[in-house]
């Protein structure tokens, strides 16, 4: 998901997206512990995505 797509969403949509990504991160962590290498590579990407979403949420809440 690109930054412009994230910025175009409302705060509520971003919160829902953050929840989904945290769930995905939990699933990837379990797969990593089982020894699946692809999951280990995706974890950092998902973490960065969550951080981007949190940053945009904080920016939008500060505007109000």
From TrEMBL:
* Originating gene: rpmC
Question: Keyword annotations for this protein?
Answer: Ribonucleoprotein, Ribosomal protein
Question: Transmembrane stretches, by residue range?
Answer: none
Q: Any idea what this protein is called?
A: Large ribosomal subunit protein uL29
SUPFAM superfamilies recorded = Ribosomal protein L29 (L29p)
What InterPro entries does the record tag this protein with? Ribosomal_uL29, Ribosomal_uL29_sf
Q: Which residues form a coiled coil?
A: none
Give the family per the record.
Belongs to the universal ribosomal protein uL29 family.
Q: Which GO terms describe its cellular component?
A: ribosome
Q: Name one Pfam family in it.
A: Ribosomal_L29
Which branch of life, at top level? Bacteria
